[in-house]
Amino acid sequence: MRAESLVEIIGSAFYTGIPDSQLKALCSYLMDAYGIDPKHHIIAANEGNCTALAAGYYLATGKVPVVYMQNSGEGNIINPVASLLNNKVYAIPVVFIIGWRGEPGLHDEPQHIYQGEVTIKLLEDMDICSFIIGKETTDEEVRAAMEEFKRILDFGKSVAFVIRKGAVSYGQQIEYKNNYTMLREEVIQHIIKVSGSDPIVSTTGKASRELFETRTANGQSHRCDFLTVGSMGHSSSIALGIAFNKPNARIWCVDGDGAVLMHMGAMAVIGANRPRNFIHVVVNNNSHETVGGMPTVAGNIDLAGIAKACGYPYVVSVDSFTQLDMELGAVKSRNELSLIEVKCTIGAREDLGRPTTTALENKRNFMEYLKTL
User: SS3 for 118-153, per residue?
Assistant: First the structure.
C-alpha cells in the first residue's frame, strides 16, 4: 500500500520514531509532508524515548499518537509500554508501526533472526493487538483493521501495524546531505592505519561493514575487530567492558552519531571511569544512514562538549583528513581516555558488502585474540 494511504487511514496528526529501512517509504513520506516539526513529526533518540514523547503528546492533546520503529526497538519500549501506557497504569493509547526484520522464512542478517521470530509474541506479551501488512494487503483491509483498533484504543490500550518487507511504498525519493566532505569508509581506513593490531569495537550498520571490507582489501586478519551487528547504541559499553579487563591493550570504539544518541548515558559512565586505554571515535554524519539517511539531532548539538562534560579528559572535533591524521597520531601515544568526533558526509559505496564470517566466528576469533593481550 502507499505510505500516504496508511497515514490517512490511521488519521493521527503526530508521528515520532526511529528510522528503519523496512519503513523507508513511510519515513520519506513523513519527511516530505512534515519534515522535522514538533507539532507533527519528531525523530527521537531511541524507541523508549519515542514512546514517552508520544505519551506526552496524548496527555497534552487527548489525541492518539503514532510511534514507528524497526522490530529491534521492541526491547526499548517494553518498560514504558508496561509501566506507563498500560491500561492498568495510565491507559495511554498509542499506534505502533513496526518494520518486521527477520520475518521467519525470509533471509535476513543474523541480528534480526531471533528478533524476527519473537516480534509478534512480544507484542502479545505487552497486550498490544497487531495487524500484519504485506504486499497483498489492501487498503480496505487496513481500514477495517483500523476501525477495530479504534475500539481498542478507546480502552486506553495500544495497537500495532507490523510491516512486512516491501509492503509500503512511496513514489518520491528524498536526498539527505550535509556540508562535510570526508567519507566514513575513508575515515575508517585512516583509523586502521594508526590502530595497527589494537582491538576495535565497531558500531552496528555500515561502519562495521566498511571495517570488514577494509581489512579484506588490506589482506589483514579480522581477529582484531568486534563487529557489533545488532544492539544499536551499545558498542561503546562493549568496548568499555573490554578496556576494564584488558588494561594493557589500547581499545578503540568506532561509533556513530545515531548510536551515541540512542544510549547517551554510556558516555557518562565512560567519562566517570576514565579508562586510560580507551579511544572513542564518533563518526558523525548527522544521519541514520544505514536505514535511509533520515537526520539525527547530532547536527544541532555539541557532542564534543557533551563528552567533555561527562568527564572525558581529551576531546576534539575534526572535519578534515589533515586534522584527523594529526589527532590519530597523537592519540596513539596519549595514555588518556580520548574522544575524537569526526564530521563526515553521508554516503557509502553501492557495492558495499557484508561480513563473510558469521557472528559466532567473529566472536570466537576476537576472544582468542584478546587472550594474547
Answer: HHHHHHHHCCCEEEEECCCCCHHHHHHHHHHHHHHH
